[in-house]
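Minutes, structural biology subgroup

Action item carried over from last meeting: produce the structure token record for Lipoyl-binding domain-containing protein (Aureibaculum flavum). EB confirmed the sequence was re-checked against the source entry. Recorded below for completeness.
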Amino acid sequence: MKNFKFKIYDNSYSVKIVSHEDNLINLEVNGTSYEVEMKAEVKKSKTPVLVRSAAKAPATPVKVNPGSSKTKILAPIPGIVVSIDVKVGDVIKVNDRLLVLDAMKMENQIAAEKAGTVTAVLIKPGQQVLQSEVLIELS
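Output recorded by EB:
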């Protein structure tokens, strides 16, 4: 395991720790084997163990106005709009790419979760948006 060199009263000692389990240590001093029992108890790590409970149910997306016939596409994270792939009047399907949002030097593609027609584009390329800001409206 580990090798040590000691000098005590001009005598040199080469110590090799062979094994260490709980309070018992097997070591060799200048080639002679010894088994040593430590008096003090070996301290255990004080690092707490993190235990997380399982999630009860997956989080459901927040609907801005569930009774409305319009669907609002919200910014999932703050960032800068790189490009917009739709315009007012476009008919889109589920998973069609609507825009690209740059956040922390990563481009995130925002896709449609619902089919519909684009009724409003409330952003423009280069614009900075905040989390949960309305980007596009669908009907």
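Discussion: The chain has two domains: 2-37, 71-138.
Next step: EB to file the record with the rest of the batch.
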